[in-house]
């Protein structure tokens, strides 16, 4: 079990919150004396995902979500540029909140999580950021990354925030502020655009702007890059999930619940943190999960001093002594949308159904899903569709897409010693995906789809002083041994193709 650290003094108008509250991963709650809410209260949880913003009510007493409302927003992609409109996040959040609040009686707090590693500006921003957030997957800053790698001697990627900052003119004053995650933006708007703005350590750890334990910016790196003038514009990194302000009257009115003005708004961390907690894997030794969302990773929590053999080690937003390990493939949503829009010309949901018409191994069709590069293990890579014959049909291709995603996730988990996993996220709508994950990892526990909002609810309850307790959910599903052997065989063929491709990438 992990414990939130005693609150550290932060230069701001944070609300006072609980002391020494314990972070559990799921379950019923015991109110603590210092709690700012009781177990019958409800938390309005929000997740600014890539495909949609979701809102849900989390009730600590039942440890569950009532009614999730999902409002989609568009992604604009031109070459390597990938953006979304923050104003769409706000309108999606307002609509989703109004909807779930319809029957709510005891809402006493709001808790917000969301996508990470974005560049968002608010105020009198440079043109590049005018109602446009550069998403984590935006890789246009290729030349900037090359230059920064040379001047700093570190390996700086085009998706790193330092490269994205280099696309902006050097700021002369503080006419605008910068935010680095969807939750930062919604917290900022919901608390009435205060002078101070916040992010969390998990999100900060994805940006390349910090070093372990990711609670401070790496000022030396900014100096070497000649970008120090951006530091005052960046959000303060909260030491753990805490209330960062109170709901302002303007937003309370817009969600149709003026009486909620003044309730605490908790920044519950980037989605790698909330998904980990929601999947029941937020404490050391609590197991592994597979997240199939727009991004996609295999995750678990380890001690910060353990050997991390996986490529990505992210900060645990609540405690310094833990690390979230993420074997990331980053682009599940992009692969599904791309395949649906190009070779299959159908919706993602139809792709998912088509795939059920084919059998394990997809009649020899193999899909390598690195259409936006490979993150874990890191390598220059592109996507591949291999093994087409005159007899293969749309079902085989659809199945190959989903199998390729399963195999890339399994491959990205090398060194993580996962064993059985929980499987979460929107792609769990696909039975092929869930079967494949179960076969490759030796068993899968199918959990609630929207664990990001669930995690935000649990983290919000903890941040306000409630002590949540573990409780296992979902039953373990194992595919029959014969089927598993066939999946293993298909994976072996997939790996062979990847090895051949590595020689020419
Ligand atoms: N029927 C379906 N079958 C397979 N994948 C699906 C289906 N519906 C949605 N998805 C995928 O689920 C993902 C969105 O999942 P979600 O957990 O909501 O992620 P995010 O928080 O990134 O929006 C997208 O990659 C989308 O393509
Ligand atoms: O939108 P998601 O949940 O797939 O997550 C996006 C990640 O935060 C990117 O780092």
UniProtKB/TrEMBL annotation:
MF terms from GO for this chain are: glycerol kinase activity
Repressor found in the keyword field: no
Where in the numbering of this chain does the Carbohydrate kinase FGGY N-terminal domain appear? 43-278
Keywords of the record:
Kinase, Transferase
Question: Could you tell me the EC number(s) of this protein?
Answer: 2.7.1.30
Domain of life where this protein originates: Eukaryota
Q: Which residues form the Carbohydrate kinase FGGY C-terminal domain?
A: 280-461
Instruction: Name any Gene Ontology BP term.
Output: glycerol catabolic process
Query: Could you tell me which InterPro entries the record lists for this protein?
Result: ATPase_NBD (IPR043129), Carb_kinase_FGGY (IPR000577), Carb_kinase_FGGY_CS (IPR018483), FGGY_C (IPR018485), FGGY_Carb_Kinase (IPR050406), FGGY_N (IPR018484)
Pathway involvement? Polyol metabolism; glycerol degradation via glycerol kinase pathway; sn-glycerol 3-phosphate from glycerol: step 1/1
Q: Which family does it belong to?
A: Belongs to the FGGY kinase family.
The name on file for this protein is: glycerol kinase
Which organism does this record belong to? Gracilariopsis chorda
């Amino acid at each position: 079990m992990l414990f939130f650290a005693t609150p550290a003094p932060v230069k701001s108008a944070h609300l006072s919150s609980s002391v020494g509250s314990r972070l559990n991963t799921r379950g019923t709650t015991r109110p603590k004396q210092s709690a700012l809410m009781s177990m019958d209260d409800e938390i309005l949880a929000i997740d600014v995902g890539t495909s949609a913003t979701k809102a849900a009510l989390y009730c600590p007493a039942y440890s569950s979500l009532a009614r999730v409302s999902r409002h989609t927003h568009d992604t604009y992609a031109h070459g390597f540029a990938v953006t979304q409109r923050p104003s769409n996040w706000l309108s999606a959040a307002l609509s989703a909140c109004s909807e779930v609040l319809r029957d709510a009686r005891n809402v006493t707090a709001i808790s917000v999580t969301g996508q990470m590693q974005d560049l968002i500006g608010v105020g009198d921003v440079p043109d590049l950021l005018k109602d446009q957030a550069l998403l984590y997957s935006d890789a246009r800053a290729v030349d900037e990354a090359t230059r920064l790698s040379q001047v700093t001697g570190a390996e700086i990627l085009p998706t790193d925030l330092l490269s994205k900052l280099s696309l902006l003119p050097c700021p002369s004053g503080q006419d605008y502020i910068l935010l680095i995650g969807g939750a930062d933006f919604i917290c900022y708007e919901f608390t009435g655009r205060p002078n101070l703005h916040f992010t969390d350590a998990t999100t900060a750890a994805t940006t390349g702007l910090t070093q372990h334990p990711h609670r401070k910016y790496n000022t030396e790196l900014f100096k070497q890059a000649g970008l120090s003038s951006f530091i005052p514009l960046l959000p303060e990194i909260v030491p753990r999930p805490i209330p960062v302000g109170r709901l302002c009257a303007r937003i309370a009115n817009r969600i149709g619940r003026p009486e909620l003005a003044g309730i605490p708004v908790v920044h519950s961390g980037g989605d790698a943190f909330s998904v980990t907690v929601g999947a029941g894997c937020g404490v050391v030794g609590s197991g592994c999960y597979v997240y199939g969302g727009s991004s996609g990773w295999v995750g678990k929590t380890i001690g910060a001093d353990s050997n991390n053999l996986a490529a990505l080690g992210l900060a645990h937003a609540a405690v310094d002594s833990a690390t979230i390990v993420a074997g990331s493939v980053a682009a599940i949503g992009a692969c599904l949308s791309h395949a649906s829009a190009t070779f299959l010309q159908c919706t993602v949901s139809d792709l998912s159904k088509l795939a059920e018409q084919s059998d394990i191994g997809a009649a020899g069709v193999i899909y390598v899903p690195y259409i936006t590069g490979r993150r874990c293990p890191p390598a220059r890579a592109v996507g591949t569709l291999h093994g087409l014959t005159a007899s293969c049909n749309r079902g085989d291709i659809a199945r190959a897409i989903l199998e390729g995603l399963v195999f890339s996730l399994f491959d990205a988990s090398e060194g993580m010693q996962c064993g059985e996993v929980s499987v979460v996220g929107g792609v769990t709508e696909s039975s092929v995906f869930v079967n494949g994950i179960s076969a490759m990892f030796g068993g899968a526990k199918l959990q609630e789809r929207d664990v990001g909002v669930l995690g935000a609810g649990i983290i919000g309850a903890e941040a306000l002083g409630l002590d949540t307790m573990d409780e296992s959910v979902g039953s373990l599903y194992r595919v029959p041994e014969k089927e598993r052997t066939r999946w293993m065989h298909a994976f072996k063929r997939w790996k062979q193709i990847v090895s051949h491709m590595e020689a020419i990438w």
